[in-house]
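Tutorial, part two.
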Amino acid sequence: MNICVFLSAADLADRYTRPAREFAELLGKGGHTLVWGGSESGLMKVVADGVQEAGGRLVGVSVDFLADLARANADEMVIARDLAERKALLLEKADAVVIMVGGAGTLDEATEILELKKHGKHNKPVVLLNSAGFYDGLKQQFRRMDDEGFLPLPLTELVFFAEEPVGALAYLEESVGTL
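Running the prediction step on this input gives:
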């Protein structure tokens, strides 16, 4: 399975890197392919290293203004013209999506993927990995949107909230197998 992971390129505390390393190892040992932003820095590097060390493949999609930060030894690396093309390519190359901790860029990617799913532009499973409670506030906001009628489909059909990496991967493997 090709799993797109949206996440930070920043160096982060162990409460975030530990679950990312665990997920990466599970992904690689499971024979899956990481589809990611291609960066060789921060949490992106942690996950890419873990997947590669565990035997998984790496498919990176960088963007021209970040090409100098792209991982040199990825199995495949595509350089997009801009961020919009990058997001489209990441989704195109993936069977499923995992959203890990990140900043404004990760939030932008997450909301676009969810908006596209909401409108039926893809039916790929989306998991929000809530490491160390990072997305508790966002989870609460999505529940409110669901409860108050802002979502045209149930929240459970839009995104799965996982507290642990093993739960995230188990959900994806079950979901992709039923598509």
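The CA atoms of residues 28 and 59 lie 13 Å apart. In part three we will examine how such features are distributed along the chain.
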